[in-house]
Design goal:
Layout: E1 2-6, H1 11-27, E2 32-36, H2 43-56, H3 62-66, E3 69-71, H4 79-89, E4 92-97, H5 104-114, E5 121-127, H6 134-144, E6 153-156, H7 163-168, E7 179-185, H8 194-198, H9 201-219, H10 225-232, E8 235-237, H11 241-244, E9 245-250, E10 268-277, E11 280-289, E12 296-303, E13 306-311, H12 317-327, H13 336-350, E14 357-360
Parallel strand pairs: 1-2, 1-4, 2-3, 4-5, 5-6, 7-11, 9-14
Antiparallel strand pairs: 7-12, 8-10, 9-10, 10-11, 12-13
Helix pairs in contact: 1-2, 1-12, 4-5, 6-13, 9-10, 9-13, 10-13
The structure holds NADP nicotinamide-adenine-dinucleotide phosphate.
């Protein structure tokens, strides 16, 4: 497998994608990685930069893997700069876009202009969030499909790669549910990722994709994009925004480097939804955010005789997702229709005037 990793110096590339590739490389002796971002480095400097993250992730022989990684600096917004890379990975490769979403459009255009996406054997993996709302998701899709069809596009929601979430697939379909809640709470704040977080916020960062995909996967009748879409289409906002949505921002967030001093970006949310089951509407709650009292990733199903909690923790999601994308298995990659359904549900919450923002103490329960 040939792998072109764009955004190779990023947080996600270092901590998740490269360790996953290193583990996959032990079984796939033909795996070769071309890693690229703007920093004007050679292989040795790049290796020194990523080795600690590989070691921290438990990669047994980081240097054996790094011998199969070539670092090639390039500005991905410039077709001329990408051309040599594109030639190298054609006609058979996985191209992984692990870049801040605000840069997707110019990079996809530049990549498209190189001709790299025209090869039948090239697949594009793209990190969430896909768009900022329904309209921008449609526009992004229209841009991508100028160069590459939906069948070769793999939108990544890494929660769908987690063993814990796979175990939940279809688990709640047909259950006598009286309620469902999903909690994706972090104790970490936005430190170090202020600029990214301020343009994203909690709803786009974890609710639109992870929380809704986990809910859809667990409520769906079976696995796969169509089953998840049918479940997503049964979710609606439980009531008026004033009562159904609580948004918060932790005290001190606006002093984070990269964050606007008057930022209105929410860092925590509690959202009331309703699921139209065959037996009637079921209340659904999503609670998520940063700088909260406790780190917790779980789904709780209220069923007789009592609540059942399912952990959503776990790792190695990228190993599974990359292997499946290489094999052309699209079961665990959100379709355009799923992404649009999720935005349609949340666009009213995101559109101005947004519900007022409660300021909470970092480390509190919000
Ligand atoms: N971090 C996470 O845990 C996480 C989890 C899930 C999903 N995601 C998603 O994954 C993506 C990447 O996140 P991240 O946290 O890794 O972001 P990040 O740390 O900001 O990394 C962005 C990367 O893109 C490169 N880059 C930006 N503009 C470029 C350009 N014009 N040409 C070449 N390289 C460019 C940067 O490298 P240089 O500055 O060196 O060029 C850097 O390597 C985002 O879409 C995010 O939503 C992240």
């Amino acid at each position: 497998m040939r792998y072109l990793l764009l955004g190779a110096t990023g947080d996600l590339a270092r901590k998740k994608i490269l360790p996953a590739l290193a583990r996959l490389a032990t079984a796939d002796t033909e795996l070769e990685v071309v890693a690229s971002s703007r920093r004007p480095w050679g292989d040795a400097e790049y290796g020194a930069f990523v080795r600690p993250a590989l070691v921290a992730a438990g990669v047994a022989e980081p240097d054996a893997f790094l011998a199969r990684v070539r670092y090639a600096p390039a500005d991905h917004t410039e077709p001329a700069s990408l051309k040599a890379l594109a030639r190298e990975v054609a006609p058979q490769s996985l191209i992984h876009l692990s870049i801040q979403p605000s840069a997707y459009a110019p990079i996809i255009e530049a990549l498209g202009e190189t001709g790299a996406l025209g090869h039948e054997g090239v697949k594009l993996l793209i990190e969430k969030p896909f768009g900022r709302d329904e309209a921008s998701a449609r526009a992004l899709d229209a841009l991508i499909t100028r160069y590459l069809p939906e069948e070769r596009l793999y939108r990544i929601d890494h929660y769908l790669g987690k063993e814990s979430v796979r175990a939940l697939e279809g688990a709640l379909a047909g259950e006598a549910l009286t309620g469902v809640s999903v909690t994706l709470a972090e104790t970490l704040d936005a430190q170090g990722r202020g600029a990214f977080y301020d343009e994203t916020g909690v709803i786009r960062d974890v609710v639109q994709n992870h929380a809704l995909e986990v809910l859809a996967a667990s409520l769906a009748e079976g696995a796969g994009p169509e089953a998840r879409l049918a479940a997503l289409e049964k979710l609606s906002l439980a009531g008026p925004l004033e009562t159904g949505v609580r948004l918060g921002q932790y005290q001190g967030y606006r002093e984070t480097p990269g964050v606007a001093p008057d930022s209105k970006t929410p860092t925590a949310v509690e959202l009331a939804l309703s699921y139209a089951s065959a037996a009637g509407p079921i209340p659904v709650t999503i609670y998520a955010g940063k700088a909260l009292a406790e780190a917790r990733q779980e789904l709780v199903a209220e069923t007789p005789p009592g609540p059942r909690a399912f952990s959503l923790a776990g790792d190695h999601a990228y190993d599974r997702l990359i292997r499946e994308a290489a094999e052309g298995d699209r079961t665990h990659f959100p379709s355009l229709a799923e992404v649009l359904a999720a935005w349609q549900l949340l666009d009213p919450v995101l559109a101005p005037p947004t519900p007022s923002l409660a300021i909470y103490e970092p480390g509190s329960d919000f």
